[in-house]
Amino acid sequence: MGYRIIVQSERSAPYLESRIEEFLQSVRQKLADMTDKEFQSHVKAVIIRKTERLKNLNQESNRLWTFIANEMYDFERSKRFPS
After folding, report:
1. Which residues, in sequence order, are CB contacts of 31 under 8 Å at separation 6+?
2. Which of 32, 37, 39, 54 could bridge 59 with an S-S bond, Cβ 3.0-4.6 Å?
3. What is the DSSP letter of 6?
């Protein structure tokens, strides 16, 4: 698993990098402070969201455009790996 951070700003690169690092540290701390029960609740919510059937054509379209925007052209991936 990985992550990507895209920032558009007129601020300097060193300033933006420091803000991103600060954000990542706060997330790391939040995860460290989270109880196992809270973490499992988040895991369950993600699984439910990933396996939920799409309700209409708009949701399907949004899902496909997200694949395209992220340059991930394996449109059937969610069917093979739902979670």
Report:
1. 39
2. 54
3. -
Residue spans per domain, the chain? 11-52, 54-83
Per-residue pLDDT, averaged over 14-39, amounts to 94
Query: Measured between alpha carbons, how far is 83 from 37 in angstroms, rounded to an integer?
Result: 19
Spatial separation of the C-alpha atoms in residues 44 and 37, rounded to whole Å: 11
In angstroms, the CA 50 to CA 62 distance is 14
pLDDT, one tens digit per residue, over 50-70 is: 788 878 898 888 888 888 888
pTM of the model as a whole: 0.54
- DSSP SS3 for 40: helix
* Complete DSSP assignment for 25-46: HHHHHHHHHS-HHHHHHHHHHH
